[in-house]
Every structure is written in structure tokens, then in C-alpha cells.
Amino acid sequence: MVLTIDIGNTTIGIGGFQGNKLLFIEKLSSRRPLSDAGYIEKLNMILNKHGLSAEAFEGSMISSVVPSVTAVFSSALETFLGRKPLILSHKLDLGYEICTEFPEKVGCDRLADIAGAISRYSLPFVTIDLGTATTFNVLDENRRFLGGLILPGVGTAHRALLGKTAQLPKGDIHMPAHTIGANTQECITGGMLLGNACAIDGLIRRIQTELGQKATVVATGGYATTVIPHCETKIHIDQNLLMKGLRSIYENNTSTGSPD
Ligand SMILES: Nc1ncnc2c1ncn2[C@@H]1O[C@H](COP(=O)(O)OP(=O)(O)O)[C@@H](O)[C@H]1O
Ligand SMILES: CC(C)(COP(=O)(O)O)[C@@H](O)C(=O)NCCC(=O)O
Ligand SMILES: [K+]
């Protein structure tokens, strides 16, 4: 079994795989960092909850876009499993070529999303990750990662809007009833959800024009299920895309890994 860890700017996801089967996925906040002893305690609790023990895991793999948490979590995993985790970087065998200007600068979550999509969706494809930021990541038909786009995430934009204005009310953004909001809260909800959905439709159209062909589109991240249903483009939602990518990369870069 393999533990996969996704350290994002809001959430730390912890997944457990047996072969290519995802047994569990648990979430911690990355906003309140813990000590390595704190993370070891959380890992113990998670495995206990699922009736598993550390001995059952042959290794682990981390994707992190929060450098300050990477070192602490890595040290916690080394103590917990008795083996250093594999840490995702552009230097590993990802199953595709990075053709951006500075491969070392690309967020590891973007690299893992692409790896998760590569054996599951037809090429070319675009992965969209709606987390703290929203990222678009384009893989062409020759398995070349060309780059993409980075936008403020839905929650990030919403918090910025409320933080920079005096009169806008706090409130949840769920289903907009219609496009023409009849009160302030409806206007904000529509702006956030339909605004992001239309941005996605428009950007996918432009990406396809630039590629010169249609692309498969797959979305993941905390806001995927809230925003994607409002898009006109056909988009697959795969909440575990990143974790699946981490497992594939682990298998491709360790000799003990079992194939897909
Ligand atoms: N099931 C869900 N439905 C709606 N929003 C969610 C859900 N899960 C998480 N979120 C929201 O998504 C955001 C975090 O997304 P996530 O993909 O975990 O971010 P990151 O990868 O940047 O840490 C949070 O602001 C949270 O409120
Ligand atoms: C764009 C991101 C902030 C997204 O992070 P997330 O929303 O998943 O927490 C992260 O992928 C990152 O720090 N990227 C580095 C720059 C780049 O990817 O080009
Ligand atoms: K993410």
C-alpha cells in the first residue's frame, strides 16, 4: 500500500492506495501547520479509523505547493513509515514532457493533476484545478505539457471582494437561482459561480483555438462540484485526480511499485 499526500494552500489531502484502488482520502487544514509530532498523531488517527497500520505501507509520495509544510510533513512520514517519502518534482519520470519555460517553477499539484489524467482521458486534454487558485494545465496530443493559466480561486476571489468592500454581505455561495440577481446576495452568488463558469467556458474555447483542435477537459479541486455544473463545455469531474496522479508517479519511479 502507498500513502499519497497533497499539500495545497488550503487543504492537506491524505490518500491510501492498494494497487490502483483508492482505499480512503482524508483532509486536514494546511492553514494551521502542525509540528511533525502533530502530523504523526493525525496519520495514526487516520490509519486507525480505516483499520490499517503503518507497517502495511511500503512508501509514500508528497506533492506540495507549500514549502514550509513540505519539510515538516516529510519528516513526520519518515518517522511514521520508517522510510523517506518520495517528493514530487519536475525531475521525476512523470510520463510526459514539461515544455514550459521554467519546469522547476511549475506547481507540483499541476504536475500531479496531469499525471492523474494521462492514462484515463484522451489527449489532448486540459485539467482544471479549482482550489485556493484555479489552474488550467494543457497537455497536447504528443504528451507535451505546454502550460496553462492561473486565476484566483473561487473562495479567494470571494474573500477578496468582501474584504475590499464596505457594504457587501457575508454569505454562502451556492446555487444561483438565475443570472440576473434580484438582491445583493444573489448578485454575488451569480457573479462568483456563473462568472467562474463562463470564464472556464471562454478560456477552454481559446485554448482549443490555440491548440487547433478539441481537447478533453477534466476538473478537480474543492470548488469543482460547485462551479463545473454551470459550464456549457462538457467537463469531466474527477475529485481524486491528483491522488491518482501521485500513485502513478510513485509506481513509475520506484522499483517495488505494482503496475496499473
Ligand atoms: N466538497 C466541497 N464543496 C464545496 N467546496 C469545497 C468542498 N471541499 C472544499 N471546498 C472548498 O474548496 C477550497 C479548497 O479547495 P482545495 O482544492 O482543497 O484547495 P487547495 O488544493 O488549494 O488546498 C476551500 O475553500 C473549501 O471551502
Ligand atoms: C498556482 C498554485 C498557487 C495553486 O495552488 P493551490 O490552489 O492548489 O493551493 C500552485 O500550483 C503554485 O504555487 N504554483 C507555482 C507557480 C506555477 O505553477 O507556475
Ligand atoms: K490543488
TrEMBL record:
Protein name: Type III pantothenate kinase
PANTHER family assigned to the protein according to its UniProt record, in alphabetical order: TYPE III PANTOTHENATE KINASE
Primary location class: cytoplasm
Top-level division of the source organism's lineage: Bacteria
Entry's cofactor comment: A monovalent cation. Ammonium or potassium.
Gene behind the chain: coaX
Swiss-Prot/TrEMBL GO biological process terms: coenzyme A biosynthetic process
Residues bound to K(+): 129
